[in-house]
Design brief:
173 residues; mainly alpha; transmembrane; transmembrane helix; MAL; Plasmolipin
Length: 173
């Protein structure tokens, strides 16, 4: 679990203790990337929501992907910030996070391509064009941040040559 916050130190959260803030998570690459994903995802769905997206089916997909992963990213962020992942030690969190980031990357690729292809420069509402073009740009940047998170999550999942099952067992022995 190298690369994840709290991986190098002993587990401090017992099942009955209240959640505690993990300050090291906020300065870790995972913390920075999750913050960036939350801000960028918010920009994507708010820019699309500010247009007449309901008239175009393509923007419904972009709205779904951006809002769905924005909510899940916030949930993962709170989970890691409050060290709740240590209370549910039976879940292989590095593997879950890697799969989540990989799926988010693939679906954001489809959302970015869909959004960029649906932008029409001859739109009768200029502000819709500007917002949709900006949403396409931010969807691309968000896709890149999820891709980078996938890379770091993969490295954390691989750890120091151990697999997820053995790292879960050895952490609590």
């Amino acid at each position: 679990m190298a690369g994840l916050p709290g991986a190098s130190r002993a587990r401090s959260a017992s099942p009955g203790s209240p959640p505690a803030l993990d300050g090291s998570f906020l300065v870790s690459p995972l913390g920075w990337l999750m913050c960036a994903q939350a801000v960028l995802g918010l920009l994507v769905w708010s820019l699309i929501a500010a247009t007449t997206y309901h008239l175009h089916a393509a923007y419904g997909w972009v709205m779904f992907v951006s809002l769905f992963f924005w909510i899940l990213t916030l949930l993962f962020f709170v989970t890691y910030l409050l060290q709740l992942h240590q209370k549910f030690y039976m879940i292989p969190w590095p593997l879950v996070l890697m799969i989540y980031n990989a799926v988010a990357t693939v679906l954001y690729i489809t959302a970015f391509v869909t959004c960029a292809a649906a932008v029409q420069p001859t739109s009768w509402r200029q502000w819709d064009y500007n917002r949709r073009a900006a949403a396409s740009f931010f969807a691309c940047v968000t896709m890149i941040t999820y891709g980078v998170s996938t890379f770091f999550s993969f490295r954390a999942w691989k750890g120091l040559g151990s697999n997820a099952a053995t790292s879960q067992v050895t952490d609590h022995v």
